[in-house]
From TrEMBL, chain A:
NCBIfam families xref list: nuoF_fam (TIGR01959), PRK13596.1 (NF010120)
Keywords: 4Fe-4S, Flavoprotein, FMN, Iron, Iron-sulfur, Metal-binding, NAD, Oxidoreductase, Quinone, Translocase
UniProt name for this protein: NADH-quinone oxidoreductase subunit F
PROSITE patterns: COMPLEX1_51K_1, COMPLEX1_51K_2
Catalytic activity: a quinone + NADH + 5 H(+)(in) = a quinol + NAD(+) + 4 H(+)(out)
Cofactor(s) named in the record: [4Fe-4S] cluster; FMN
Name of the gene this protein is made from: nuoF
EC number: 7.1.1.-
UniProtKB/TrEMBL annotation, chain B:
One of the Pfam families matching this protein, by short name: NADH-G_4Fe-4S_3
Domain 4Fe-4S His(Cys)3-ligated-type stretches: 90-129
Coiled-coil annotated spans: none
Listed InterPro entries: 2Fe-2S_ferredoxin-like_sf (IPR036010), 2Fe-2S_ferredoxin-type (IPR001041), NADH_UbQ_OxRdtase_ferredoxin (IPR054351), NADH_UbQ_OxRdtase_Gsu_4Fe4S-bd (IPR019574), Prok_molybdopt-oxidoreductase (IPR050123)
All residue ranges annotated as the 2Fe-2S ferredoxin-type domain in the record: 2-89
Protein name: (2Fe-2S)-binding protein
Keyword terms, alphabetized: 4Fe-4S, Iron, Iron-sulfur, Metal-binding
SUPFAM superfamilies: 2Fe-2S ferredoxin-like, 4Fe-4S ferredoxins
Length: 446, 337
């Protein structure tokens, strides 16, 4: 099993308390950064590490940090995006509830690097119990002198606040998150200006995922170069994968990027294969918004090479034959799964969560859901299938924020790879809508 | 100053101008449609996606094209930017898609809608839409709500442009209405039934691009194309109201009073409710003469003037380009023939 940088001590009893966490080497990165490094050196280490955003987009974190505008006399903010609500993704919840101090440590080091004096953790409203864990941990960190005025006598001061959302998926989009944090309706903003220039309260702001901020801790402790030795190519370090679906051992795995997908699914070290001895049908590799891939394409790319759990390997083939690593929400579906029903389910989610600000997403997500509902319940026609593709295309790329794409991609990919199954729903409605029915025919590979 | 090329026509505009406003300097059929953007309202725009254009070169310094279509109403120009609108097939296709999206939950009740004839959505659909629908499901409907004695809200027609929200924010001291709900369940409302009561509230009727907010003193009185617009003014005592309006006559009767609008349907000066709702006698006003209406509209074919390309821009162009442009769609008047 590969190295664990984030979750090494996750099962130690009492690791959620300051004392135990400190005993296991906690807060070393804060000491190292504040006492021996300048903020720019911290940013430089993160750049060297090759760390990429763990929230889904995979943008290089060091680069994001160096884009932050630094006008004189204007406060800057680091905001942690803990609004994890993508179906299939549940890694941050675990990380925060078990290792709250890891996130806080990362926030302190990160805030120091960016010169932020006030930082926020915006947590999903449904995770109220995690909010309480974090607040307790923050109070401990204040008491131990790692937060507040003049941390460790370095002259650097930081205040850290946790703020709960009110249950909207859209508030995971960074500008909607900032709007919500400001106390407004969580509508995404038009970009530009980007948060790095005008973010929270119109001040320069960096918004990072929980796991990204946590990863700063081992990077500072061991050095960026050491971190970059893990992984493959431009996908460095470790990544938390929340595996769910028809697996023998679903759960959260910290993997070194570069593990073959086949090994991840079938080896006993990880998911232990498909449950009940069934065959794998399809995989959604990075949370519900990335394209679904049939078994043949998720295990090997078109060239016949093994697919690896890396940003590059999973996106090999673009959206025609590839997908994305996304946020690491790995959903495996066995041969009894109905893809049409599953697509309808995803679509229903996006319809429910669209903020309603821009017209393609507001109207299009609902439309797709209704057409899919029709197909799934045996009332669809052949041209409904083309209609789905066409509506998805009308949404994609024409919206204010990426939710439009997140809604369009899974639908487009499902039709692309499982068109036969959609057609089967049209031609054999009675059979297809029977309880537990699933199409066993071949998927479209290219 | 920044020089940009819009659909092959060069225009120089001050820095910080949006692409849409730069296109409006040129004028004519090349101007992207705008359903939510409203120049007098700060922060408006970016929502309807009707004005999406292709930026095929970002600037002189960085001539890479922008990867996605951008909303021209909120994207500012850069020196050396090259923008494609009517000459780009992708833009035209996307725009058709936007019309479709805006119409799937619209009741299409133009025959009984007071806005018909001066409705931005009607114009937009007429110019860019298709004449059939692929939408089979039930449309979203709402009950009509009276928000005060003078304004009626019919959410069924609303396209959620947010203009009325910005108007209330920026014109009046306390906003009591806003957008409630999420996704396609969003609606304009006052949450707990409330009336909008302040002396500038009537302006939400003027900014509404569709017939969602209508003047209750004018509802069902007359089709707008049978009324005659006349500019007039009075000495209005209300603070911030200039008293300069357009009166809409049918015979000798003033049927309604609106603010004066420019060719893009944007209010030039806000007017107060007293001018709008209470002063409906010719004797209340000093008449200035017929209002000059030059906006493209569904009914414009009969008695409104069609928009033309700003002659000044044309004069500055070399003759060969002018000849070329005359054969090209951007110069075809209004796209309404």
């Amino acid at each position: 099993m590969g190295r664990k940088l984030l979750t090494e001590h996750i099962n130690v009893e009492g690791i959620n308390t300051f004392e135990v966490y400190r005993k296991h080497g906690g807060y070393r990165s804060v000491e190292k950064a504040l006492k021996t490094m300048t903020p720019d050196e911290v940013v430089e280490e993160v750049k060297k590490s090759g760390l990429r955003g763990r929230g889904g987009a995979g943008f290089p974190t060091g680069m994001k940090w160096s884009f932050l505008a630094k006008p004189e006399g204007v406060p800057r903010y680091l905001v942690c995006n803990a609004d994890e609500s993508e179906p299939g993704t549940f890694k941050d919840r675990q990380l925060m509830s078990k290792l709250p101090h890891l996130l806080i440590e990362g926030m302190i080091t990160g805030s120091y690097a960016l010169g932020a004096r006030t930082s926020y953790i915006y947590i999903r409203g449904e995770l109220l119990y995690v909010l309480r864990i974090l607040e307790k941990a923050i109070a401990e960190a204040y008491a131990a002198g790692f937060l507040g005025e003049n941390i460790l006598g370095s002259g650097y001061s930081l205040d850290l606040h946790v703020h709960p959302g009110a249950g909207a998926y859209i508030c995971g989009e960074e500008t909607a998150l900032l709007e919500s944090l400001e106390g407004k309706r969580g509508n995404p903003r038009n970009k530009p200006p980007f948060p790095a220039v005008q973010g929270l309260y119109a001040r320069p702001t960096v918004v990072n995922n929980v796991e990204t901020i946590a990863a700063v801790v081992p990077i500072i402790n061991e050095g960026g170069d050491e971190y970059a030795k893990l992984g493959v190519g431009k996908s460095t370090g470790t990544k938390l994968i929340s595996a769910c679906g028809h697996l023998n051992k679903p759960g959260i795995y910290e993997i070194e990027l570069g593990v073959p997908v086949e090994e991840f699914i079938y080896s006993d070290e990880y998911c232990g294969g498909i449950w009940k001895g069934r065959d794998l049908k399809a995989v959604v590799a990075g949370g519900s918004s990335v394209p679904i891939l049939p078994k043949e394409l998720i295990l090997k790319n078109v060239a016949g090479e093994n697919r690896l759990m890396t940003y590059e390997s999973l996106s090999d083939g673009g959206f025609v034959t590839g997908t994305m690593l996304g946020s690491g929400g790995f959903i495996a579906m066995d041969e009894t799964t109905c893809i049409v029903k599953n697509t309808w389910n995803f679509s229903r989610f996006y319809h429910h969560e669209s903020c309603g600000q821009c017209s393609p997403c507001r109207e299009g997500t609902g439309w797709m859901e209704k057409v899919l509902h029709r197909l799934e319940h045996g009332h669809g026609s052949m041209h409904d299938i083309d209609l789905l593709v066409s509506v998805a295309k009308q949404i994609e790329g024409n919206t204010i924020c990426p939710l439009g794409e997140a809604a369009a991609w899974p639908v487009a990919a499902a039709v692309r790879h499982f068109r036969h199954e959609f057609e089967w729903h049209v031609t054999n409605p009675k059979e297809a809508t029977a309880p537990g029915a699933a199409y066993r025919g071949k998927a479209v590979l290219a | 100053m920044a020089k940009i090329t819009f659909d092959g026509i060069e225009v120089e505009v001050p820095d910080g101008t949006t692409i849409l406003n730069a296109a409006r300097q040129i004028g004519g059929g090349i101007v992207p449609p705008a359903m939510c953007y409203y120049t007098p309202l700060k922060g408006s725009g970016g929502k309807c996606r009707a004005c999406l254009v292709k930026v095929s070169a970002g600037s002189a310094k960085d001539p890479r094209p922008m990867p996605k279509l951008v909303a021209s109403c909120i994207t500012t120009v850069q020196d050396g930017m090259v923008v494609e609108n009517t000459i780009n097939q992708q833009v035209m296709d996307v725009r058709k898609g936007i019309v479709e999206m805006l119409l799937i939950n619209h009741p299409l009740d133009c025959p009984v809608c007071d806005q018909a004839g001066e409705c931005s959505l009607q114009d937009f659909a007429f110019e860019h839409g298709v004449s059939t629908t692929r939408y089979e499901e039930e449309r979203r409907t709402f009950e009509k709500i009276d928000i005060g004695p003078l304004i009626q809200l019919h959410m069924t027609r609303c396209i959620l442009c947010y203009r009325c929200v910005y108007t209330a924010d920026q014109l009046t001291p306390e906003r009591v209405h806003g957008v409630l709900g999420r996704g396609d369940a969003s609606e304009i409302g006052t949450y707990i039934e409330n009336i909008i009561d302040n002396e500038f509230s009537g302006n939400v009727i003027d900014v509404c691009p569709v017939g969602a907010l209508t003047d209750k003193t004018f509802r069902f009185k007359q089709r707008v194309w049978f009324t005659k617009p006349v500019n007039a003014h009075r000495d209005c005592k209300t603070d911030k109201c200039g008293g300069r309006v357009t009166l809409w006559y049918k015979g000798k009767d003033v049927l309604r009073v609106t603010a004066r609008k420019d060719e893009y349907g944007e209010v030039k000066e806000w007017i107060c409710n007293e001018c709008r709702f209470d002063k409906k006698e010719t004797s209340d006003w000093v008449l200035e003469g017929p209002a000059h209406i030059n906006r493209a509209s569904v009914i414009a074919q009969n008695h409104y003037e069609l928009p033309v390309v700003n002659p000044q821009v044309i004069q500055d162009l070399p003759e060969s380009t002018t000849r070329e442009l005359e054969r090209n769609p951007p110069l075809r008047l209004g796209g309404l023939n």
